[in-house]
């Protein structure tokens, strides 16, 4: 199922003044960031293994650098075949597929990853220049979990990584 917005249950620190435990979305990024940038919290987390796949070297290097700055271990691949080899070797928690991938397109990569890794073991995020029903359906059928429109807001990406980090560290 493709995700348009991420809903998470609010922990005690995020409940509203009435005490109701309401769902939160990506719009609550600043609250989540304040809660999770605490070094004591991050020290107890296992960093995510992030695979960034893009045919454009500048883009992939920038996103790898972001993931590393956020405390995660990042790997890169410049084409679809390399992405599959790196995924099998390092078993990433998150795969970020950009639109500039060569040799094998992002939906083919996602299908191969879904064959090798169950949905609970790997989270696939795709970046696209367009989000319409055709693109959304194609990505959903391929097993892509989140579809982001270019240009990607780094706050949204960081929040998605934090949510996945939370899930990985709770299991």
Descriptive terms for the model:
disordered N terminus, alpha/beta, globular, 7 helices, 171 residues
Quick structural gist:
This protein is an alpha/beta fold and 171 residues long. The chain is built from 7 helices and 5 strands; from the N terminus they run ααβαβαβαβαβα.
Give an account of the 3D structure.
- The structure is a single chain.
- The protein has 171 residues and is of the alpha/beta class.
- Helix content is 44%, strand content 14%.
- The protein contains seven helices and five strands; from the N terminus they run ααβαβαβαβαβα.
- The protein has a five-stranded parallel sheet, with helices on both faces.
- The relative contact order is 0.17.
Are there runs of 5+ residues with pLDDT below 50, and where? 1-32
The structure class reads alpha/beta
Strand content: 5-15%
- Helix percentage range: 40-55%
Rg of Cα set: 16 Å
SSE arrangement, N to C: HHEHEHEHEHEH
Main sheet strand line-up: 2-1-3-4-5
- What summary fits the major beta sheet? 5 strands, parallel
- How far the N terminus sits from the C terminus, by CA atoms, comes to 21 Å
Gross morphology is globular
* Number of helices, counting only DSSP H or I runs of 4 residues or more: 7
Mean pLDDT: 78
- The protein's oligomeric status is single chain
What is the strand tally?
A: 5
């Amino acid at each position: 199922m493709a995700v348009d917005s991420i809903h998470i249950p609010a922990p005690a620190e995020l409940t509203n003044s009435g005490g109701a435990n309401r769902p939160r979305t990506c719009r609550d990024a600043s609250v989540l960031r304040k809660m999770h940038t605490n070094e004591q919290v991050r020290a107890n987390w296992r960093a995510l293994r992030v695979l960034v796949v893009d045919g454009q070297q500048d883009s992939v290097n920038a996103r790898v650098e972001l993931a590393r700055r956020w405390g995660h271990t990042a790997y890169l691949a410049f084409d679809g075949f390399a992405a599959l080899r790196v995924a099998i070797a390092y078993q990433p928690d998150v795969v970020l597929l950009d639109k500039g991938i060569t040799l094998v397109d992002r939906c083919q990569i996602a299908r191969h990853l879904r064959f090798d890794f169950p949905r609970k073991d790997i989270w696939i995020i795709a970046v696209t220049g367009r989000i319409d029903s055709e693109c959304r359906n194609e990505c959903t059928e391929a097993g892509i979990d989140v579809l982001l429109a270019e240009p990607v807001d780094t706050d949204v990406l960081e929040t998605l990584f934090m949510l996945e980090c939370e899930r990985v560290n709770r299991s």
